[in-house]
Amino acid sequence: MLSILRKFSFALGLGAAALVAAPVHAEPLKEVKLDFAYYSPESLVIKRNGWLEEAFKAQGTSVQWVFSRGSNNSLEFLNSGASNFALTSSISALVARVNGQPVKAVYSYLWAEPSALVVTANSPIKSVADIKGKKIAATKGTDPYFFLLRALDANHLKPSDVEIVHLQHPDGRVALEQGRVDVWAGLDPHMAGAQAAGARFIYRNPAFGLSAFLNTSESFLKQNPEAVRIVLRAYERARRWIIEHPADAVALLSEEIKLPPEVIKLQLGRYDFSRPLPGAAHLDAIRPVVPLLLQDGILRRNAKVDEPLNTLIDGRIAAAVIAEK
Fold it and tell me: Considering the entire predicted model, what is its pTM?
């Protein structure tokens, strides 16, 4: 793996050097703003341990954290300037870029099955074939919503065949448990919590696996490459720590998220932390979803997608950071 990364880093060496040589702020940054989220274990590890506060202290840069409930929330923060980085699904990042937000994916903090269709333990629903005409909770603009579109399409159903109720992820779980919806397109760790409480999955599909990105804006990347490098080093440190200390990771996340360790184990068991360098495979996983985004109106019918997709990722700093020992 490291040999592959070194070759990739060498091939991108000139590009990385050019990035570092780009115009930067003459004055050190006064603050760096990041979001943290329950669906991003690395963000919780970094925040809990104060790694970024420590890394930025020497240059007098403060670190501000904002909590994100979903990719849509995270992108709103990035777009408004409330944060300089955004933790999102790969598809959400693409949608934002197609719609004109200058998002750049600079790191992949995990790869996972993005969602599952969840029902209560006593629900009469047994399969996707039973959900026609039912109420389904999902958070529009996030991976579970895109997963729902793919699940319907794979089972010869259309969004108009069901009633989609747009709720943020934790609210979707509550609505399911209260009987206000019949199905929920879930997101971990909320989905793991529901599963531990007895909820059933009626549809999963590992083939729908996608990456989750740490994004920044084009302008921040250009003007502050060293700040991006520091943040990526923290994410890479956290990724390796989670892999090397699984029991400690479960304990830390359990305390931070306020969920039992058995729920966190379910959550982490669905995450793949082995693909941090964003690249062609990450983009290829997005491509099958594009026609559904167009059909659903998430992207304009005449939207040009190829150029935003092909320019979504900038992995030059990540390649160098991941190759470091």
Answer: 0.87
